[in-house]
Amino acid sequence: MRPFQPRRRRFLSTMATATAAGAILPRPLFSRLRTNDPPATNIRDALKIPRTKESMPGRYPGRVVEAFDPASVRDGQPVAARAAHMLEQAMLELTGVRDIGEAWSQFVSPGDIVGLKVNPVAGKLLSTSLDLTDAVITQLGQAGIPRDN
Questions:
Q1: How many CB atoms lie within 10 A of CB 76?
Q2: What would the pLDDT profile of 30-43 be if each residue is shown by its tens digit?
Q3: Around Cβ 78, how many Cβ atoms within 10 Å?
Q4: Residues near 1 by Cβ (< 8 Å), separated by ≥ 6?
Q5: Whose CA is closest to 87, among 95, 148, 56?
Q6: DSSP-derived 3-state class of residue 74
Q7: What φ, ψ does residue 87 adopt, rounded to 5°?
Q8: Which residue of 67, 92, 104, 126 has the smallest Cβ count within 10 Å?
């Protein structure tokens, strides 16, 4: 009977054994698993559907904007007004319009119900910023989305 090993030690032992076996086993065994055939996709089927402005990958495929403000964080805390301003500037630059309500209206309509996914448990540096979330809610309101939506 094998003596008890903690899970981590048993896992590492198993992985080491598997790695050694992979190095020792003859290559023809693995070469049968390889194929030069490309993986099957549904790209041809997807291309048959006419693309609209709401289709994926979205209105601005591959377009990236950067917002940077060295004063947006003070003493390790986000500055709400600066975060809102950066979000507004990024949305205006992305869409090419001058009004933040008009910019958001390219993505949402007044009848839409918008869900914001926030992550409150990832620690101080990785959790969703409440200041930025508030800015999104405020700007969606400027696009005509009722606060209840």
A1: 7
A2: 566 666 777 788 88
A3: 15
A4: none
A5: 95
A6: strand
A7: -60, -45
A8: 126
